[in-house]
Design goal:
By secondary structure, the chain is α/β, with parallel strands linked by helices. The protein has helices spanning about 15-25, 45-65, 75-80, 80-85, 95-105, 115-120, 125-130, 145-150, 160-175, 190-200, 210-220, 245-255, and strands at about 5-10, 30-35, 70, 90, 110-115, 135-140, 180-185, 205, 235-240, 260-265. Helix 5 packs across helix 7.
Length: about 270
């Protein structure tokens, strides 16, 4: 048993999709969340810059005494997994568990993948899906405006800015007849209602934050690193810019207050 917190990081708000799932599957676990909203989005930056940011983010969490690190960011998961592998605690990313879930869910073998420009260009999800089932037909699509929408609080499917943007990006995937869609950036599940409205009820949406949280929970159990039942759960949130804007969207999404545990920090 281990009372130390789980460390979760992302470029901004998106990793909260994983935190929300962790609250459900591991309700006793404490969490330290780091959202680098001062440098969001990661997905439009160079590979070298992203890897540098990822190293700083992981170092920050390690200084908080975490027992595991979850890179709740599709972009970091796609280009910096080797850095996570050097940590002295278990490291998890979103790509492999999400790909396995999608391969298991598809009925027709036609899977769409949406993510940031860097994630899609890396081919990380395609490689993981091919490893699970070489016969799959995979249709990747970069959706670079989704992260700025979420970070700016534009998340309602009734908002015309949201609905028109989602339709513009996802119409080609709908026309390809995919029956499963990987939300390959942890920001994207926050737009789940709008994405589902465009894709239709016959398309299964695979939430990368949920799949990563489930994989982490299973592995911590295997390693006997779960917190004891009497653990007083605590959640601390750290951001690099505009904590008020982060708090408003985060509380709307999580469904509870985070004000007392939210602080702005500098990592550079």
């Amino acid at each position: 048993m281990d009372r130390r917190p789980i460390g979760v990081f992302d470029s901004g708000l998106g990793g909260l999709t994983a935190v929300k799932e962790l609250e459900q599957v591991l309700p006793r676990e404490s969490v330290v969340y780091f959202g680098d909203n001062g440098r969001v989005p990661y997905g439009s930056r160079s590979r070298e810059i992203i890897r540098g940011y990822a190293r700083q983010d992981m170092d920050f969490l390690m200084k908080k005494g975490v027992k595991a690190v979850l890179a709740a960011c599709g972009t970091v998961s796609s280009v910096a997994a080797d850095i996570g592998g050097t940590l002295p605690v278990p490291y998890f990313d979103v790509v492999s568990p999400t790909a396995r879930a999608a391969a298991a869910a598809t009925r027709t073998g036609r899977i769409g993948v949406i993510g940031t420009s860097v994630t899609v260009a890396s081919g990380s999800y395609e490689k993981a899906l091919r490893a699970a089932d070489p016969s799959l037909a995979i249709f990747p699509r970069a959706c670079p405006l989704f992260v700025p929408l979420v970070e700016s609080g534009f998340i309602s499917p009734e908002d015309p800015v949201v609905s028109l943007t989602v339709e513009r990006y996802l119409a080609p995937l709908r026309e390809q007849g995919v029956d499963t869609l990987i939300l390959g950036c942890t920001h994207y599940p926050i737009l789940r209602a709008a994405i589902g409205a465009v894709m239709g009820p016959g398309v299964v949406l695979i939430d990368s934050g949920r799949e990563a949280a489930l994989a982490l929970a299973g592995r911590l159990a295997e390693l006997d690193l779960l917190a004891p039942e009497d653990n007083p759960r605590q959640a601390d949130y750290f951001v690099t810019d505009n904590p008020e804007g982060f708090r408003e969207v985060a509380e709307l999404f999580l469904g509870h207050s985070i004000e007392s545990g939210l602080r702005r920090v500098t990592v550079e």
